[in-house]
């Protein structure tokens, strides 16, 4: 981390479809095979009623509470290792994007900021093993902050946690609504699309910050 008092920078990155490719269809098919519920029923029992969104906002105290609620909704036992295997099977690391995190880490603190619940937080290091060496203790799910993207309070709590002001913060996400949420509190936010070179976005932010310091 760059410890210069004139350039405290924070780089926050979403996970799914930013640093890893996430194919929700693979996950849903695997869950359907395991539970015996089809896609529509899976959505009805957990996602459409808001359970996953509540988990992302910190409703469940920990991963055990999350899994107990998920099992109750599914009507069957779902071992944690099986839940994690199914979720992880839908994820593939994106090396070029992860290289952008490595580049950012040379200029400031890097942190993950992904809409996920506490059980996901236990397994991210297994699903994407390239991330822990870069993010260290900052592999954060939104559930850690008691709010979820795109809520502005999520971003203000993350800034308070890291101790870096919004104007010194970079954020990358694949959803326009989340980018707007970050921008609403003054964060420099980048929309990540299929052809986005995240490394260039990081370099441009660093250059702009360096120019601002000189000015």
The helix/strand order is EEHHHHHEHEHHEHEHEH
* Helical coverage, percent range: 40-55%
Secondary structure: number of strands: 7
Assess the beta-strand content as a share of residues: 5-15%
Mean pLDDT: 95
Overall shape = elongated
Q: How far from one another are the termini?
A: 23 Å
Query: Any low-confidence stretches, pLDDT <50, length ≥5?
Result: 1-5
Strand line-up of the largest beta sheet: 5-4-1-6-7
How would you characterize this protein structure?
- The chain has helices at residues 24-35, 39-47, 51-56, 63-74, 80-88, 95-105, 118-127, 132-135, 152-162, 176-183, 198-214; strands spanning 10-13, 20-22, 91-93, 109-114, 139-141, 169-173, 188-191.
- 51% of the residues lie in helices and 13% in strands.
- It has 215 residues and is an alpha/beta fold.
- The model is unreliable at 1-5 (pLDDT under 50).
- Helix 10 (176-183) links the parallel strand 6 and strand 7 (188-191).
- The protein has a 5-stranded parallel sheet, sandwiched between helices.
- The chain contains 11 helices and 7 strands.
- The chain is elongated and about 60 Å long.
């Amino acid at each position: 981390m760059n410890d210069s008092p004139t350039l405290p920078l924070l780089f926050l990155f979403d996970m799914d479809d930013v640093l890893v490719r996430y194919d929700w269809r693979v996950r849903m098919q695997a869950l359907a095979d395991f539970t015996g519920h089809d896609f529509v029923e899976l959505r009805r029992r957990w996602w459409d009623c808001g359970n996953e969104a509540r988990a992302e906002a910190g409703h469940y105290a920990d991963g055990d509470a999350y899994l107990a609620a998920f099992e109750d909704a599914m009507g069957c036992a779902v071992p944690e290792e099986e839940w994690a295997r199914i979720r992880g099977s839908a994820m593939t690391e994106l090396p070029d994007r992860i290289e952008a995190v490595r580049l950012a880490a040379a200029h400031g603190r890097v942190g993950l900021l992904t809409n996920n619940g506490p059980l996901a937080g236990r397994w991210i290091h297994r699903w994407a093993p390239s991330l822990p060496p870069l993010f260290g203790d900052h592999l954060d799910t939104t559930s850690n902050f008691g709010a979820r993207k795109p809520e502005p309070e999520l971003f203000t709590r993350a800034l308070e946690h890291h101790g870096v002001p919004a104007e010194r913060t970079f954020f990358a996400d694949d959803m326009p609504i989340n980018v707007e949420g970050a921008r609403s509190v003054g964060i420099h936010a980048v929309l990540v699309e299929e052809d986005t070179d995240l490394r260039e976005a990081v370099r441009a932010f660093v250059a702009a910050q360096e120019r601002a310091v000189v000015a």
